[in-house]
Specification:
2 domains; 204 residues; five-stranded mixed β-sheet; 14 strands; 42% strand; single chain; mainly beta; six-stranded antiparallel β-barrel; globular
Length: 204
């Protein structure tokens, strides 16, 4: 019942999407111009073995800390020997001190741009007017094997006050603000979908 009620709440507020402002787009910068982290950090040791599958840009990497994958992690020419991997709330970075050189031959070739596929989105019809964990879901792109429902891949896994939500397919940029299909796992392989939900902020 909790899952159904949560979907009902999101359905009820989806109708307010018309009044939402345009989607904010941000090219994320993990480092300052001087090469310092732009967020507070916690340190770890690890290595990167290929370009990021989440962020399609040449300074983004897919990395290991122990058995845990971090993607995306970002490098900078002014910060030799480390990469920074932000959490989805963009409140802290994991600063990985690299035990191997970056695999530049496997790097992505994209230049960071607001035209890229977002690796992180913030959704919620009430989020723009009243940003809070209760109104906003942060959803991070998930590479690799992910389920599909009704022909739409679970591209983004979301965190917020209500658990179990994910964003399916890709953002619809043909409308403003952008929208995306959000669904909640209600058990037994079933997903309850909402109407298109507003994307308040997208990070590339």
């Amino acid at each position: 019942m909790v899952g159904v009620a949560a979907v009902a709440v999101l359905l009820a507020v989806a109708a307010t999407a018309v009044a939402s402002p345009a989607t904010k787009t941000t090219v994320f910068h993990a480092f300052t111009v001087a090469g310092a982290p732009s967020l507070p950090t916690k340190t770890a040791s690890g290595y990167c073995w290929t370009g990021s599958l989440a962020a399609e840009r040449s300074d983004a990497w897919r990395c290991f800390v122990g058995n845990e994958i971090h993607d995306p992690c970002f490098s900078a020419p002014a910060a030799h020997g480390i990469v920074l991997c932000p959490n989805e709330q963009l409140s802290t970075d994991t600063e990985i001190h690299l035990t191997r050189s970056l695999p530049t031959a496997q790097a992505d070739h994209g230049i960071a741009s607001i035209h890229d596929r977002p690796w992180l989105i913030e959704v919620g019809p009430k989020c723009a007017q009243s940003p809070s964990p209760a109104n906003c879901l942060r959803c991070e792109f998930e590479p690799g094997a992910q389920p599909s429902v009704d022909g739409k891949r679970l591209n983004y896994e979301c965190s917020g006050a209500i658990a179990g939500f994910g964003a399916f397919g890709l953002p619809n940029r043909n409308v403003e603000p952008w929208t995306i299909t959000v669904g909640k796992d209600i058990g037994k392989g079933s997903v309850a979908f909402t109407p298109p939900v507003v994307i308040v902020h997208a990070w590339m």
